[in-house]
């Protein structure tokens, strides 16, 4: 069980780093405007719109792997916990609340 937690943690961290890298590689929506007016930047490795499709699909896959690994880590964390409910503890383990001191009778004298 411990090796599974380690494996999921490594996959989770790697997927997070891949998602960060892929998001940073993507262009903003305003960058396509310059390419449509013939700035010459549209002739990239993947073509004018091929990089957007490739990067967005890769980001979606990496994000899915990240969320699945995070969910697996959460399930393993909850599965390994012991129940610590007050209702499951024996009654002898609880202690009665301390009593407050008795109030003096009458009006107490206030020193001057």
Automatic annotation (TrEMBL):
Keywords: Cell membrane, Membrane, Protein transport, Translocation, Transmembrane, Transmembrane helix, Transport. Residues 87-112 are annotated as: Disordered. GO terms for molecular function: protein-transporting ATPase activity. The chain crosses the membrane at residues 6-25, 61-78. One of its GO terms (cellular component) is plasma membrane. Belongs to the SecG family. This is Protein-export membrane protein SecG. It comes from Leeia aquatica. The gene is secG.
């Amino acid at each position: 069980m411990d090796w599974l937690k380690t494996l999921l943690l490594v996959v989770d961290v790697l997927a997070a780093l891949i998602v960060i890298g892929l998001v940073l590689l993507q262009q903003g929506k305003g960058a396509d405007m310059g390419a449509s007016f013939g700035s010459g930047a549209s002739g990239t490795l993947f073509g004018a719109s091929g990089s957007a499709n490739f990067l967005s699909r890769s980001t979606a896959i990496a994000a899915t792997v990240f969320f699945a690994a995070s969910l697996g880590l959460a399930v393993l964390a909850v599965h390994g916990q012991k129940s610590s409910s007050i209702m499951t503890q024996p009654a002898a383990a609880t202690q009665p609340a301390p009593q407050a001191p008795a109030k003096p009778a009458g009006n107490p004298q206030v020193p001057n």
